[in-house]
Design goal:
Layout (H helix, E strand, L loop, with lengths): L1 E2 L2 H14 L5 H8 L6 E2 L2 H17 L6 H4 L9 E4 L2 E5 L3 E10 L5 E7 L4 H4 L1 H11 L9 E5 L8 H9 L2 E5 L9 H15 L7 H17 L11 H13 L6
Parallel strand pairs: 1-2, 3-7, 7-8
Antiparallel strand pairs: 3-5, 4-5, 5-6
Helix pairs in contact: 1-2, 1-3, 2-3, 8-9
């Protein structure tokens, strides 16, 4: 095990707290050290972070902020979320994986593998998903919320201009509170466990091919407990049919 960054540690603790809200510090600490998480951390550090996170959870109960702080919504094409993670490849070095997910049905709208971390590269995943789903900006007839963290790529002028072009309601998760973007955080964790971590990668193209295959399986085959064991594709079709009388676009 290696010493763990604050961001990864917080994400791991949040993941466990969401799954097992009744657990105390020692159980969370013990699970963090298991191979599934592989984090080297002291119980004192876990206690301090859990204390801070629980206070953040309590503060999130402000009625005026409930709409923006809910990570799961009822309908498809109501809120999308995106974030990114990094992976090492033998030939291409460090590359970045950027998923975009619909928080209403857990459908993985796009997964892009890029070599750069500019705003344009990081936004390519959402941009590809928007073009595939709506074609162009004229077909997006109601504001779609996009949830991100406050990384430099998402607070740049490039991102602001791009979001305005698509008429997106871009909301930012509060700093140090990964729970406010928990849906995409969770899919990144699942992607790592099921696709990325089991093997080493030679190059971008090899990784991209594997992610494309996993992407399809995630949407169309893998049942989700949060969806009452439906697949994201099944839930999305139900949501869109209910909202639009059978039409697939909004």
């Amino acid at each position: 095990m290696q010493y763990t960054s604050l961001y990864c540690l917080k994400s791991g603790i949040v993941d466990i707290m969401l799954k097992y809200p009744q657990w105390g510090v020692r159980k969370v600490w013990a699970l963090l050290r298991q191979p599934a998480y592989g984090m080297r951390v002291s119980t004192r550090r876990v206690w301090k972070l859990m204390r801070d996170l629980r206070q953040a959870f309590r503060n999130d109960n402000s009625e005026s902020n409930q709409a923006s702080k809910r990570v799961v919504v009822d309908d498809s094409n109501q809120r999308w979320a995106t974030d990114f993670t990094k992976v090492w490849t033998k030939e291409d070095g460090q590359v970045t994986i950027v998923p975009t997910i619909d928080c209403g049905c857990r459908t993985l709208m796009a997964v892009e593998v890029v070599k750069s971390q500019t705003s344009e590269s990081i936004l390519a995943s959402v941009d590809a998903a928007l073009k595939k789903e709506f074609g162009d900006t004229t077909n997006l007839r109601q504001a779609l919320e996009l949830r991100t963290d406050q990384g430099s790529q998402y607070v740049s002028q490039t991102c602001k201009d791009w979001a305005e072009k698509w008429n997106l309601n871009h909301t930012l998760a509060k700093k140090g509170t990964p729970t406010e973007n928990a849906v995409v955080e969770r899919v990144i964790r699942t992607m790592k466990e099921e696709c990325i971590w089991p093997r080493d990668w030679n190059n971008v193209e090899e990784l991209r091919q594997a992610l494309n295959k996993w992407h399809q399986e995630y949407n169309e085959i893998r049942p989700h407990q949060a969806l009452n064991w439906s697949t994201p594709k099944q839930r999305r079709e139900e949501n869109l049919a209910r909202a639009q009388g059978g039409h697939k676009k909004i």
